[in-house]
Design the sequence.
């Protein structure tokens, strides 16, 4: 336990000195999917594109002038955000399906062989790697106490970002396909068996669990004392975080495999049938809905100050007005999109299973 508190003190000291916080897949450790910037509202053009030799299932991560993407053939690519030029490549042991995360001067990710990696952010030099119990398709989560991983057999682990030391591992049963969410000293996640669970971040001890009835693939999003999640049977759930009891439930017209986005006192979800819903955060009542695609949607929506961005398996990216769902623009790339579109400065970064990386402007 002494090592854990030493690590926490080090993380806080680094943050105080540098002022730079973590950069995460869904914008923050609560996985809200809300990016506090404005996005262009007219049809975009392609600033640059990059072609890889393998499929891309996760989203891009952008830190300063670098964008990072993992591929099915195990490459972690670093590109220049302004030009798309490749800066460096790191070869992992297995397919990389989770989006990398960054903290201070480190870049962290896991692969389908079960390895967890820490790299130097500027140049991709390996700092450490270690082995989890089984393959990891979910992104890692950055917390105050370290990195949290969730693997295909339901093991949740806490790692030291400095050297890869594992503080604890808790088997939970049921595969976990999305990063955990963090809040109130706990980590929260759902699994393929339809169970939502909360563990104490410092020790890995179970706090509560709740059955929602069907598989959870998109993970949870947190806001204050509430958690929101979607299930494959088409339900959207609002839960009280303190006790894991349901507050409300909404039934969509089809299954939902992607997690929600939270912002503007609303929950935004996209169903597998291509329909987007905006719900009231407090009661789960429908504010608006819109059919945006005839293709399957498995990427979680991204929300900015003025746009909700949804991407589908036909390569179509759609931007809607969050207030009323009105269409702002559409754009289509090559290949299915299963990673969340990433707003970054004046660009929108898109990754596809055809191995394409696009920067839209």
Sequence:
């Amino acid at each position: 336990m002494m090592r854990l508190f030493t690590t926490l003190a080090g993380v806080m000291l680094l943050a105080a000195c540098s002022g730079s916080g973590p950069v995460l897949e869904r914008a923050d450790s609560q996985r809200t999917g809300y990016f506090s910037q404005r996005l262009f509202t007219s049809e975009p053009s392609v600033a640059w594109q990059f072609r890889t030799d393998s499929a891309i299932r996760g989203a891009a991560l952008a830190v300063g002038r670098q964008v990072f993407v993992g591929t099915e053939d195990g490459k972690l690519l670093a590109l220049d955000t302004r030009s798309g030029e490749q800066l460096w490549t790191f070869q992992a042991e297995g397919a990389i399906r989770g989006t990398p995360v960054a903290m201070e001067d480190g870049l962290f990710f896991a692969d389908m062989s079960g390895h967890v990696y820490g790299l130097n952010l500027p140049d991709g030099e390996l700092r450490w790697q270690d082995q989890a119990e089984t393959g990891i398709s979910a992104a890692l989560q950055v917390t105050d106490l370290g990195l949290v991983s969730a693997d295909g057999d339901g093991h949740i682990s806490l790692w030291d970002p400095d050297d890869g030391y594992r503080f604890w591992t808790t088997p939970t049963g049921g595969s976990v396909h999305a990063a955990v969410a963090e809040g109130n000293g706990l980590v929260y996640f759902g699994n393929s068996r339809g169970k939502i669970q909360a563990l104490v971040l410092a020790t890995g001890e179970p706090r509560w669990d709740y059955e929602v009835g069907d598989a959870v693939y998109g993970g949870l999003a947190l806001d204050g004392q509430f958690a929101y999640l979607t299930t494959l049977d088409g339900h959207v759930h609002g839960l009280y975080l303190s006790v894991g009891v349901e507050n409300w439930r909404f039934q969509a017209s089809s299954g939902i495999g992607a997690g929600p986005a939270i912002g503007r006192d609303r929950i935004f979800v996209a169903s597998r049938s291509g329909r987007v819903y905006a719900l009231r955060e407090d009661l789960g009542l429908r504010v608006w809905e819109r059919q945006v695609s005839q293709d399957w949607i498995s990427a979680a929506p991204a929300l900015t100050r003025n746009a909700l961005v949804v991407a589908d398996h036909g390569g179509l990216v759609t931007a809607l007005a969050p207030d009323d769902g009105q269409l702002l623009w559409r754009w289509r790339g090559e290949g299915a999109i299963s990673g969340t579109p990433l707003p970054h400065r004046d660009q929108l970064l898109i990754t596809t299973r055809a191995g394409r990386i696009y920067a839209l402007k």
